[in-house]
Amino acid sequence: MITVEKLKKNSAKTPADEAKKSDKYYYASQWSLMLRKFRKHKLAMVSTYILLFFYIIVIFGNFFAPQGTEQYDGKYVNCGPTPVHLFHEGKLVGPFVYGLKSERDPETFMNTFVEDTEQIYRLRFFTQGEAGGEYKILGLIPCNLHFFEAEEGGKVFLFGTDNMGRDLFSRVILGGQISLFIPVVGMLLTLVLGLFMGSLAGYFGGWIDTVIQRMVEVVRSFPQVPLWMALSAAIPKTMKPAQIFMLMTVILSLVSWPDLSRVVRSKFISVKKEDYIMAARISGAPAHKVVIRHMIPSFTSYIIVNMTMSIPSLIIGETTLSFLGLGLRSPATSWGVLLQETNALETIMFYGWKLIPMIFVFVTVLAFNFMGDGLRDAADPYK
Q1: Which domain range does residue 103 map to?
Q2: Does 198 map to a domain?
Q3: Close Cβ partners of 322 (under 8 Å, ≥ 6 residues apart)
Q4: What is the pTM of this model?
């Protein structure tokens, strides 16, 4: 039925309003049109929110993690995830965990942990306990505040523990600080190398183009995993985790720039024949100004899409190196280091919760791919 309110709403729209709305669309900038179309891609928007959530959690990881990466408790080795309860014997108690007691499995003769329902430990939020220790917010501001912890005497392991009694939930969050930021730094280095080499080859051509293309072919001719292994083998085992972090970033960038450089080269070859580029060159503009002010902005949307789509491969690269024991090593923590501890069949059979980091790798890579798809569709907003 057509209600009076709808009739009033439709009658309120004058031809001038419609024309104004049409002009607003057709005279909108490229970035406005891209953003408008990207917002219509529901899967890409959901993926963007998931990634924002992940990055916020890992940036403030020390606040959300109940324990530090170096804290452990030998009494709770290979303990399964501890459920969080709200009710005890039909009464609302609030979020709490039961105590844990060790038992011997009669079939496998392995040590297992079961809940002791006679012991109740409530969860406390925004505490300044000693469980997670003191840390620095963004590496600058000292702080000892933590999101949650159990009452004194209680243990809460949301994702269980590893073979040293370390909280896996805390290690997943703190490991994400490396697994999520190595690809971003590597992507930026890849972008700089790809744009620099591709612009040189595409703009000047000649022998410069020939030399750069042969370099690209040499790098691309090596299989990725053996190349990673060879480059990472040069990293001394005595180096600090921060130094290994930087070297791994450089390694991943050195093997990732050729694809981008070839695309940039092809874009430059096609764009440099345009009238506005020829006019800039004839007017005496220096080569670097022509490239930076005119040529690169002409395909900026593609660069953004390429940056987004390259991050998943860098995440998998870091995870692969660490899983093979060629990247970061314990006590440094990343998702690849955590998955390295699951390379035994016994772990998969009896301690399945140790595969939880794989879920975060899977979700992150999938989210970046979906967001990249949305950006790719939005890059041509006039379709």
Answers
A1: 62-171
A2: yes
A3: 328, 329, 334, 335, 336, 337, 339, 340
A4: 0.81
